[in-house]
Design goal:
Blueprint (H helix, E strand, L loop, with lengths): L4 E6 L2 H8 L9 H14 L2 E6 L6 H12 L8
Parallel strand pairs: 1-2
Length: 77
């Protein structure tokens, strides 16, 4: 797709830590974190993860709420 730089913003310190280091690799989701890190650093020139305040992440919360109420059977191409 030609995407070379990816920036991930999260309001969760633990998610940020898990995305940039192996601190949670022994957790239940550790394999997933390892795979995401591997893909991100292999597939993109720049991959950054930043911890932001929750108030700055309101759009993500709105999109998540929309996704929860979305009926996949109503999706049309």
């Amino acid at each position: 797709m030609g995407i070379a730089h990816v920036a991930l913003d999260t309001n969760l310190s633990q998610l940020r830590d898990a995305m940039v280091a192996s601190v949670l690799d022994l957790s239940v989701a550790g394999g997933l974190f390892q795979e995401i890190r591997s893909s991100a650093y292999d597939d993109f020139i720049l991959f950054s993860v930043t911890k932001i305040h929750r108030s700055c992440n309101s759009l993500a919360h709105e999109l998540a709420a929309m996704g929860q109420s979305w009926d996949p059977s109503q999706y049309h191409h």
